[in-house]
Design brief:
By secondary structure, the protein is of the alpha/beta class. 37% of the residues lie in helices and 16% in strands. The chain binds thiamine diphosphate.
């Protein structure tokens, strides 16, 4: 390994790499480009792994997934205009998912800026609406400072994306500036009087509901959540795609605030007289379209705990808005005297039953293929305490959301943004990070968006099981179409490759699953594979979602 250059002999690119190392970065995701060759060279021999991806959207999604797992910025490097344009979906996802991402982008030489030079983009205008900060570094002596600022901005408050723009010629200039290192975060100790106030409100509540969000996803956050739920006897519903925050079979688990919840379930949640929202921004999907709580004036008392003042009180008239780190708040609440347990027993049981009724799996059979839920039922029996799932966007994921009983020892990575293409790259990032088997669920639509990153999985011989729900349709959109424009199907049918043979062509194990009686055998074969495996599941389109069928939709016309 090359030793770190002396401060007065290094280039700006070498200083940037030293700054990344000082922030604990051990892996970056990239598609190489001539515009930032100097950075790639500076990475040569350094202790940062460079994961070369096949498309910038894949590289960006991998960085987002890595960020979610590590709770610190995921790092992605892409080339100028074309590379940056491909990576835009990851910037949007990082913003919607509140995931810290730093996207480093190449730029034309400083002397040509503003001339419309080859692959030139004004990134401030392009990413201005999505990123927390877009900053172009024209002075190499400020590169370390701006990189440290990028880490700070990406993680402080609601985490999100930062774009750092690197003019090509700037990177090769010599600099004497020193590495900055990490900046301290905000002090996250909530004032105890605020916790006392919350305790008082909780003691008066008869039907409280705690909505837990992704800012509690660290191990201490999960532990604090469970401790508070049990100590205060409060049922916990989790925000969109965060089912691994709380053991689903725990009697205090009230369910997942995702898409397509039955009306009676939402109505039951709405009976609550106090919502304690912790670590969630209370976004569109989680609040079931801003009705739980209802915007702008909630029907019940609302306490919102989040470490970003821009989030608090901006959509909802909040009774108590507490700007602090959610886990620190829960720890402060733990110090308050709680009432004796059992006060809300009937309410708690009612909410848990909602989840249990919805999650119960009744085998279903279809003439046009396998009902995808059968695979979820088999996975639930097969996956251990340390199971890791990544999901793409699409109706197939609804079966997992509905029927898989998650545990806090397991991990679920899914795009809160609803971006197709997240699943396979996220699985690659998760397998690299966690060094254990990762199960990826993806539709035939999403698989052909970023399934090319299977090449990276094969290159690194990662233990991925990619389960492709092949229903020959952009099923989610077909469902919306059948509801909005009944019987007028257009643009949603797909002609697919044989995904098992496609997987084999990449160098993975390829398997086809057509019949229910083969589910266990095929899953066992895939799980026994040391490297990546792709299962082409010939999924029923009739069972278009975990909640309805095409026939039922036709009948309801
Ligand atoms: C990048 C992107 N493009 C388009 C959409 C709109 N969209 C949402 S779900 C979906 C279809 C998903 O199809 P598929 O992956 O086959 O899964 P299925 O719904 O059939 O289970 C589309 C096109 C999206 N969410 N993201």
């Amino acid at each position: 390994m090359a030793s770190e250059p002396k401060s007065n002999t290094r280039t700006a690119a070498q200083l940037l790499v030293a700054e990344l190392e000082a922030h604990g970065i051990d892996r970056i995701f990239c598609v190489p480009g001539e515009s930032y060759l100097a950075v790639l060279d500076a990475l040569y021999g350094r202790p940062i792994e460079v994961v070369t991806c096949r498309h910038e959207s894949g590289a960006g999604f991998m960085a987002v997934a890595d960020a979610k797992l590590m709770g610190r910025p995921g790092i992605c490097f892409v080339s100028r205009g074309p590379g940056a344009s491909n990576a835009a979906i990851a910037v949007h996802t990082a913003q919607q998912d509140a995931a810290p991402l730093i996207l480093f982008v190449g730029q034309v030489e400083r002397k040509d800026r503003g001339r419309g030079a080859f692959q030139e983009v004004n990134y401030e205008r392009t990413f201005g609406d999505m990123a927390k900060l877009v900053v172009e570094v024209s002075d190499p002596s400020r590169l370390a400072e701006i990189t440290a600022q990028a880490f700070h901005v990406a993680t402080i408050g609601a985490p999100g994306p930062v774009v750092v723009v690197l003019p090509e010629d700037m990177l090769s200039e010599p600099v004497t500036a020193l590495v900055q290192g990490r900046r301290p975060g905000l002090s996250a100790v909530p004032a105890q009087p605020v916790a006392s106030e919350v305790a008082k409100m909780l003691r008066h509540a008869e039907r409280p509901l705690l909505i837990a969000g992704s800012r509690l996803s660290s191990a201490p956050g999960r532990a604090a959540l469970r401790r508070i739920a049990e100590r205060w006897d409060i049922p916990v519903a989790v925000s969109f795609r965060q089912q691994d925050l709380f053991d689903n079979d725990h009697p205090l688990y009230a369910g997942h605030l995702g898409y397509l919840l039955p009306k009676h379930q939402v109505a039951t949640y709405a009976e609550s007289d106090l919502i304690l929202a912790v670590g969630t921004r209370l976004g569109d999907v989680t609040t079931q379209g801003y009705v739980l709580p209802s915007a702008p004036k909630p029907a019940q008392r609302l306490i919102h705990v989040y470490d970003d003042t821009a989030v608090l009180g901006s959509v909802f008239a909040t009774d108590l808005a507490i700007a602090t780190h959610p886990a620190a708040f829960l720890n402060a609440l733990a110090a308050e005297p709680a009432p004796p347990p059992g006060r809300h027993a009937a309410w708690n049981a009612k909410l848990h039953r909602l989840w249990a009724d919805l999650a119960a799996w009744e085998p279903r059979h279809a003439a046009d293929g396998l009902v995808f839920g059968a695979i979820i039922a088999a996975l639930a029996q097969r996956c251990g305490e340390d199971a890791v799932f990544t999901i793409d966007a699409g109706n197939f994921s609804g079966w997992l959301a509905r029927h898989f009983p998650f545990r806090t020892s397991q991990r679920l990575l899914g795009p809160v943004s609803g971006a197709m293409g997240f699943g396979v790259p996220a699985a690659v990032a998760a397998a690299l990070r966690l060094k254990r088997r990762v199960v990826c669920l993806v539709g035939d639509g999403g698989m052909l968006m970023t399934g090319n990153e299977l090449a990276v999985a094969v290159q690194h011989q990662l233990p991925l099981v990619i389960i492709v729900s092949n229903n020959g349709s952009y099923g989610t959109i077909r469902l919306h179409q059948e509801k909005a424009f009944p019987g007028r199907r257009i643009a949603t049918d797909l002609a697919n490759p044989d995904f098992a043979r496609l997987g084999e062509a990449f160098g993975a194990k390829g398997l086809t699953l057509e019949h229910e009686e083969d589910v266990e055998r095929v899953l066992d074969t895939a799980f026994a594979s040391a490297g990546p495996a792709v299962i082409d599941v010939r999924t029923s389109l009739e069972y278009i979602s975990a909640f309805t069928t095409l026939a039922a939709l036709a009948q309801s016309r």
